[in-house]
Amino acid sequence: MNPPTQRPQHILIIDDEEKLLHVLGLILREQGYQIHEANSGRTGLQEAVRVKPDLIILDLVMPDISGAEVVTSLRQWSDTPILMLSSSESPAEKVKTLDAGADDFITKPFDPDELLARIRAMLRRNSKNRDEVQSTMGDLQLDYAQRTLTIKNKDIPLSRTEFALLELFSKNFGKLLSHERILQEIWGAEADSRREYLRVYVSSLRRKMTIPEANIPKIETRPSIGYRLTMD
Question: Helix H segments across the chain?
């Protein structure tokens, strides 16, 4: 396991278990990360404003407000990657939190190597996303920072999941993405349970992107394989 080679990246851990805070702090500091801690949801929100971390590790069950409520509050102003921790195996709880805006989920007890691998992957994706601010394809423009879609100067409202899906397609323009990869990128740990939703979201995107006489890319279906965004 190699430590990060760039500037120290800041990770905020929000958990009310002192022992877990201590263990996570040891593991992550050993890898070169700068660690900040909070033992309640409200304190965690205050720390997130103060620190503006590169990644947040958040427990689902907190003594004051739930992890899902913390995620909802964070997503009002921040796109910081959020990795949820939980001792619960309940799919409903995980889906609720991921839909609120969390990026990934890991169940306690967890393997430290798996935790570090997920953190590295999330930080890499976030760094890559920040390098790209906008994407213009014909009359279509995506603003990744503001999370907005504009077609022929008309704002097209998208849900968080719809935007994430279109963002994934645009950053892989012309590439055929398998169903499995799309599901993993968008829903992470809940990919298998969300399989039936992918077709629904693609259909919704196509409907919203249907603007008369607009020169925009289309989402092409490859039956039994996946989708790709193309101008063809």
Answer: 18-30, 41-51, 67-74, 91-100, 112-131, 160-171, 179-187, 197-208
One DSSP character per residue, 114-127 reads HHHHHHHHHHHHHH
pLDDT digits (tens, 9 = 90+) for 88-109: 666 777 777 777 788 888 888 8
Beta-bridged to residue 36, according to DSSP, are 12
Taking the C-alpha atoms of residue 30 and residue 116, their distance in angstroms, rounded to an integer, is 11
CA-CA-CA-CA torsion for 100, 68, 89, 55, nearest 10 degrees? 80
SS3 12: strand
Contact 27, 116 (CB under 8 A): yes
Q: What structural domains and CATH numbers belong to the chain?
A: 10-130 (3.40.50.2300), 133-230 (1.10.10.10)
Q: pTM of this prediction?
A: 0.55
